[in-house]
Amino acid sequence: MNLATYIEKVTNNFGSISEERKETFTPIINFIQERVNAQKEVHLNYICTHNSRRSQFSQIWGHIGSHYYQVPNVYSYSGGVEVTAFNERAVNTIKEIGISVSAEENGTNPIYILDFGYEGIPSTKAFSKLFDDESTASSDVGALMTCNHADENCPFIPTASARIPFRFEDPKAFDNTPQEAEKYAERSFQIATEIFYIFSQIKK
Q: E-strand spans in 30-120?
């Protein structure tokens, strides 16, 4: 599969999102729209405890989705309350859909370079880091909490002007099971679908 084919599947999947779930996106859409209207930068930091799976998927799909819908000046980050690594199962999941991944540095927490092979979508970096890492924005950030634990236990985020739940089930529950690859792919596809839907609602 290549990314173009995958994106087509994502955009054809908006009907799978329930109206109740869509309602939870309203604060995110409003946060982005207000800054677009004001011609300001939009900084989105997807936060989960270990910054290894759901928040990494979210950062990547936020990066791709904002460029795909040509929403200007959007910067997508991810972070956690602990530093671990971009989980290798999640890395393999994005490789399977045609994203080119190479490690800039080795070690227990590699910095991955992601190339998309899609016109208008620049490469980006992905690695595990704290939510207030120096690579993230210093003010007016939308903190999107992608897991219950981080939302409930993450300390005050001084850079965030909005803190919004954006929760997903953790594919980690299926590690080392026959369903592992299926569940990681399912979660990535869900996150892609919902983030693309959000950016599709932004008026430029």
A: 42-47, 74-79, 100-103, 112-115
**Rounded Cα–Cα distance for residues 135 and 77 (Å):** 8
Tokens 């671990």 identify what position? 84
At 12-53, the pLDDT tens digits run 999 999 999 999 999 999 999 999 999 999 999 999 999 999
- CB-based contact 26:192 (threshold 8 Å): no
pTM of the model: 0.96
CA nearest 94: which of 115, 119, 74, 121?
115
Whole-angstrom distance, CA of residue 112 vs CA of residue 91: 9
Domain 3-200 falls under CATH 3.40.50.2300: yes
